[in-house]
Amino acid sequence: MSSRVRGFGNTFVGLPLWNHPGARVAALVVALFLFLLVVTVPLDFWQQVGFAAACFAMAVWLNRIHGRLATLILVVLSMSASSRYMYWRLTETMSFTNWTDVAFGTGLVLAELYAFAVLMLGYFQTAWPLKRKPVPMPDDTSTWPTVDVFIPTYNEPLSVVKPTVFAAMSLDWPADKIRVFVLDDGRREEFRAFCEKVGVAHLTRDNNRHAKAGNINEALKKTDGEFVAIFDCDHIPTRSFLQICTGWFLKDRKLAMLQTPHYFFSPDPFEKNLRTFQQVPNEGELFYGLVQDGNDLWDATFFCGSCAIIRRAPLLEVGGIAVETVTEDAHTALKLHRKGYGTAYLAIPQAAGLATESLSGHVGQRIRWARGMAQICRLDNPLFGPGLSLPQRLCYLNAMLHFFYGLPRLVFLTAPLAYLLFGAHVIQASALTIAIFALPHLLHANMTNSRVQGQFRHSFWNEVYESVLAWYIMRPTLVAFLNPAAGKFNVTPKGGVIEEAYFDWEISRPYLIMLLLNLLGLAVGVMRLFVWQEVETTTVVLNLIWTVYNLIILGASIAVATETRQIRESHRVAMRLPAALRLADGNTIVCETSDFAEGGLGLKLPPGCELKKGDAVTVSLYLQEDEHAFTGKVVFHGRSHTGLALDEMTPRQEMEFVQCTFARADAWIDSWGRKRPDAPRLAARQIMRIGVMGFQNVMFHLGREMRRLLRRPAPQARAR
Predict the structure, then answer these.
(1) What is the pLDDT of residues 144-180, one digit of tens each?
(2) Sign of the C-alpha dihedral computed for residues 245, 251, 257 and 260 taken in this order
(3) Which of 141, 200, 428, 619 has its CA 20 to 30 A from that of 552?
(4) What's the Cα-to-Cα distance from 111 to each of 35, 426, 549, rounded to whole Å?
């Protein structure tokens, strides 16, 4: 058992007896016996009602108590309720009488088993995040190691790559111990000229084998730094990155890789199209805010391809970046763990980048991740093979299982239709009996996850994220599991624009089909309830409630497919920084920034300042004690906000602007994990509102398409 886990046990119990191995084994046996008793003991209807009510009342009381002990007890209560439900499902509800019931019922119970496994593994991963802190570097900089900074690029525009290069050149590290390399797999002349102009190395190769992994591996042959820091070409590091991260490598000589969060200063398609940016945690925040921190307790942190630093010797020992799968990053971490090397995670954002602009690009990126994890599952399954501890195997198992949610999610979105449309009884029990077992499972899971994950994932949003992607990742994961060689690496596009708002009919087609099916089921269910007056009224009502919930989730999924305009190539970042504005008449106004972007600034000026559009100004920004001045023109002036477009800058000025804005040591810390904590009732209202918005969007865009068809001239009229 690692020192991290030993610390967990001692802190949790705090008794000398607990240090005796026999006492721990005895406590574990007793705990397992009591747990199995709670899960399997038979109770009649009213006894189950009383037991469930007492457990839930205890959970509600515990949820009001701060502290990790209360959280762990809530986790145990949730595990008990969910395990009792699954035990009941498998032992008392599977006596099917016809093939329709067998087909639909077996599909549902398999989906539930999958969700149960992911829930249990998720609790294991996230119940006790390590919360690692930085280790200071030695005062003597001559003892600091040499670092090569790799910036891989393929087809991204130079405007996206420039800020990352300037930020990498600005890293606080001895100049003789750091080198910056642009790894240009596009072999572009303008990149070569830019790198030569600013003084960084430009590396190319004569092929594109193994995509990003091959690009990095080729660079490893041409460099020799003790450490390699890797940044995707749109991930701009802060100047403190190396000093924050490298201290752990000097403290732990077996540490091979340290990962930091992927933070995005632009909204992803969910945040942009649903207008939830900086209000609701995005899809990736749970992983970088909690899951990776939980993995760190078990020495199971995954490499994520960017914003990380790796010790060169262990990386070369495992053959460089893995090339067998398209998720080369996670596979590389697995290889390092198999060799006995450690990995670490610092939950401090030290770089920021661009999120995917469109839903289609977002889906493509997730397809690659899903395919790669399925490939790892087949080619190098962490459950088997040497070198991993049991906790490491479980963390990797959950990472792989997560991407197989496509089929189970589609089953949940269509399950009530089995009864409403075909009369199939997928659960062989009365509706009330189903309710008294299923409701405790659902209520405990939602309450516990809200408490554990609430800082980084709001209630019900997981269903929306998974529903949007389910259809698209189902096939690639199944195909990659059966044939790991299928598929190829795809580059996620960044830095584009969306000139006109539109509804993506193609990407939303699966949701629209499921929406129509659920609307049909709803209509048939209402007929069953009020016209046909069947005897199974409670069963009909239960399936109608489930169908309405699915319609809300599908409506929210469709709302994401309404792409909003994005006419700026450079995204604005809200940040308040001290500034000074010098006017043409020589007057200076002390002010502060409200936001910034590449080539522009938003300023908040004192009341009474008179400016006109087109006025030439000079704005000063400050970095520690240094002042940096940039010329520009006023493009907007209002009562509370003034917008500036900066003049074309020299490379030196561009670097200074990046240093004063994107690369500030504290640039992203105040934004990380600071969103409103989860409030399930508020989240439910929000999802309902977005679901209704999805229906409205479909009707609006459908009407617009119909009007276009009606305005189009008939073929005969065109011929005349």
Answers:
(1) 999 999 999 999 999 999 999 999 999 999 999 999 9
(2) negative
(3) 428
(4) 24, 12, 18
Dihedral of alpha carbons 234, 240, 243, 249, sign:
negative
What letter represents residue 53's amino acid?
A
Q: Of 101, 148, 185, 504, which is the active-site residue?
A: 185
Answering whether pTM is above 0.85, one says yes
The CATH topology of domain 576-660 is Thrombin, subunit H (2.40.10)
Does 185 participate in catalysis according to the annotation?
yes
- For 299, 336, 506, 581, the CA distances from 585, given in Å and listed in that order, are 61, 62, 56, 12
- 412 to each of 86, 165, 380, how far by Cα in Å? 16, 46, 30
Query: Of the residues 293, 299, 329, 504, which is catalytic?
Result: 329
Question: Which pLDDT tens digit goes with each residue over 400-422?
Answer: 999 999 999 999 999 999 999 99
Q: Taking a C-beta distance cutoff of 8 angstroms, is the pair 698, 562 a contact?
A: no
CA distances from 153 to 149, 238, 326 (A): 13, 19, 16
Provide the strand spans (E) within 132-204: 147-153, 178-184, 201-203
Each domain of the chain, given as residue ranges in start order, spans 141-357, 576-660
Whether 296 is catalytic? no
Give, in order, the Cα–Cα distances in Å from 611 to each of 348, 582, 591, 636.
40, 12, 14, 9
DSSP labels, 643-704? EEEEPP--HHHHHHHHHHTTT-TTTTGGGTT-SPPP-HHHHHHHHHHHHHHHHHHHHHHHHH
pLDDT tens string 241-296:
999 999 999 999 999 999 999 999 989 999 988 999 889 999 899 999 999 999 99
Residue 625: the pLDDT is 81
User: What DSSP state is assigned to residue 485?
Assistant: T
